[in-house]
Amino acid sequence: MTARRGRVAVAAIVLAVATPLLATLAVVLGAADLSFGDVWATIGAHLGLGEPVLSRIDDGIVWQRRVPRVLVAIACGAGLAVCGAVMQSVTRNPLADPYLLGLSSGASLGAVCALLLGVAVPLPVAAFAGAALALAMTIGLATAIGQVTPTRTVLAGLAVSSMLGAVTSLVIFWTVTGDSYREILGWLMGTLAAARWPAVGLTWAGVVVIVVPIALVARRLDAFAFGDRHAASLGIDPGRTRILLLGATALLTGILVSVSGSIGFVGLIVPHAVRLLTGPGHRSLLPLSALAGGIVLLAADTIARTAFEPRELPVGIVTALVGAPAFALILLRQRRSA
C-alpha cells in the first residue's frame, strides 16, 4: 500500500466515524436539554427497538425536527460536493461548481416560479428546469465569447447567476407581501430550517440515484483530465459523456436547491480540499468529497442554528463567510502557479 493510499484509507475511516458522532452532537445542541443517550434511545424507539425515554415535546424535537434536518444537511453537503468535483473535471475548470456557474441561481428561479407564480410542476422539476437553463446559458455565453477557458466560463457563470438572481428578486419583490417576504428571502440565502422527513427521502434518493452511478464511472472522469482527445482514445465519447454528467449535476442541484435554497462554496471548496489528500483520481475523490461535504454542511448548519440563539442564521451566510476567503486563496494559488 502506497503512502497516499494509506492516508486516503485513514481519512475515509475518520470521516466515516466522525459523521455519526457530529450528527448526534448536532441533534443534542439547542435549547432542549438532551444527551447522546436520549437521542439514540429516541431513534431506537421510533425504529421499534425500545421504549420512548423523552417527553412528547422533546421526542418531537428530536424525531420530527432535528434528526430530519441533520440527515438533509448531510445529503445536501454530499451532493453539492460531488457536483462540484464532477463539474470541475468535465469542464477542466478548477473554479466550477453549481453556485459559480449559475446552476444554483437557475434552480432558485425555477423553485420561486413554482412557489410564487403557481407554475403547475413539482418543485424539484421546476428547480431542475431552472438549473438546466442556467447551465445551457453559461456554456452558450462562454462559447460565444471565444475560446472556452476556465476564466471565461466562470465569468459567464457569474453573469448568468447575477441575471437569474435579479429575475428571482424581481419575482419576489412583485409577488410577496408581509412576513412571507422574510421567509422566502431566508430560503434563497440557504436554510434547512424547514427540513422534514419528506425532504429526507427526496434528497437521499437524489444522492443515491445520481451520485452512485457517477462514482461507478470515476475512471471516465479521470480521462477528462488529459483532454477530449485522450478520452476519445480510450473509447469514451467526450461530448455525450459531458452532457450526461452535466445534466446529472443539474438534476441533483435542482433537487437539493428545492429543499435547501441556494448554498454556495461547498461544491467549490470541498473537492479542492479533498484533492490535496487524494490527488486527482476520482475513485477516491468522489466518496471522500461526499463524506467531507456532508460534514462541512452539517457543521455550518449547526453553527447557523445555535451560535446566535434564539435567532437563526441562513446556513448560506455561514458557508459564504468561510468559503469566500478560501476561494480567494484558490485564486491566489492559481495566479502563483500560472
Written account of the structure:
With 338 residues, the chain is mainly alpha-helical. Helices cover 78% and strands 0% of the residues. The chain has helices at residues 3-28, 36-46, 56-90, 103-116, 123-145, 150-175, 179-188, 197-216, 218-224, 228-233, 238-260, 266-278, 282-306, 315-337. α3 packs across α13 (282-306) and α8 (197-216) runs antiparallel to α11 (238-260). The longest helix is centred in the N-terminal third of the chain and has 35 residues, at 56-90. The protein is globular, with a radius of gyration of 20 Å. The chain starts with a helix and ends with a helix. The model has no long low-confidence stretch (mean pLDDT 86).
> Biggest sheet, in brief?
none
Shape: globular
**What's the total count of β strands?**
0
Secondary structure tally, helices: 14
SSE topology sketch:
Layout: H1 3-28, H2 36-46, H3 56-90, H4 103-116, H5 123-145, H6 150-175, H7 179-188, H8 197-216, H9 218-224, H10 228-233, H11 238-260, H12 266-278, H13 282-306, H14 315-337
Helix pairs in contact: 1-3, 1-13, 3-8, 3-11, 3-12, 3-13, 4-5, 4-6, 4-11, 5-6, 5-11, 8-11, 12-13, 13-14
